[in-house]
Amino acid sequence: MITLDDVRKWDENDELNEYKSEFFLKEDSIYMDGNSLGLLSRRSESALQQSLNDWKEHGIEGWTQADEPWYYMSEKLGRMTAPLLGASPEQVINTGSITTNLHQLLATFYNPEKGRTKIIGDELNFPSDIYAVKSQMALHHLDPEEHFIQIASADGYTLKEEDIIAQMKDDVALLLLPSVLYRSGQLLDMKALTHEAHKHGILVLFDLAHSIGAVPHQLDEWEVDFAVWCTYKYLNSGPGGTGGLYVNRRHLGTHPGLAGWFSSDKEKQFDMDHELTPSSSAGAFQIGTPHILSSAPLLGSLEMLLEAGIEGIRKKSLALTQLFMDLVHQELKGFGFTLRNPVEKERRGGHVCLVHEEAASLCKALKSEGVIPDYRSPNVIRLAPVAFHTSYEDVFNVVRILKEIMQKEKHKSFKNERDIIA
Ligand SMILES: *Cc1c(COP(=O)(O)O)cnc(C)c1O
Q1: pLDDT in tens, 181-215
Q2: Residue 70 in contact with ligand 1 by CB distance below 6 A
Q3: Has 95 been labeled as part of a binding site?
Q4: Burial, 398: exposed, middle or buried (Cβ in 10 Å; 0-12, 13-18, 19+)?
């Protein structure tokens, strides 16, 4: 039996406790949606303010004279992100979005040739990734029905690594999978999948949207070929914050499929030559002018993440999701909830996946009680206890509030259908 006293004791001993005050949290509200949009921190606010001041002060000279010179900011953020990936810095660049970075990497490295045309994906991935694959296939005049293998899920929530491995054949060019499935929060075994794919000469691309900033990675050690991610989820860079990509060093030097002047070697860029000399680093996969004001907040949030350390964040995140599951079992029996995230530590991402027939109306009821959850059609409530700013007591309170909603049937006064954004 877990009590309020227990969780308060854990909060007192929590080494990340001090970071709660770094975030703009609303009083009487518990934010459980950091896996959709991370919250603003004081450090991100001042980093953005600094960029505005630099613009005010320097105008065009900000490209070289700003406190954090804009011309080199993407590379600087790449260097800061590298430790979260287990990667050396020249392979990482802050640029684009998940979807545009996927297009760039597919345009560059997906070169279907006779006998090797297929891409393996899965049927649970986020739609944007699927659209990107299908449209890149269309550009090669290939029919996705024939060339795109989407691994099926037996339970509708999780994937089995052995099912994926079973499809790895010598006619497959590339494997594209999420590190953590966006609905169930299942963490895939990236190391084993990469190892098996390489046995068949298959390139491996992971979408780290739901793992970066929540789970440590060892991309170099695992020999992953490519990765993409966004920064507005667990990296707290703000709405539309600039994303990032990783290209393993053995692929650096490949001419970008989608080239632009920011793909250039930085020394040569302003020669304005019509023959591109691409950067020798992952910077080659940038296209146009970097989005400085959408990147600057990341300077602050990454500084804080590196200071706190990803290992400590993962440790607390696992303890918070474990507490969530324990409390669901303890308090919510008989109310029709099923936990659909994997139970094992090594297969869990940063959120729990609570399934209920009335998930949509329950989410509306939670919001009216000051809890911000995340609804995914048709029946999923995602709850992300972000380690940086969630206390053990917060988790305790969310479950307590949910129990009260069920007992008093408060959700019955809301429609069980999704809003325009959900
Ligand atoms: C959030 C998310 C996206 C969003 O892509 P953007 O290009 O950043 O809008 C794509 N794929 C996955 C798996 C996601 O979780």
Answers
A1: 999 999 999 999 999 999 999 999 999 999 999 99
A2: no
A3: no
A4: buried
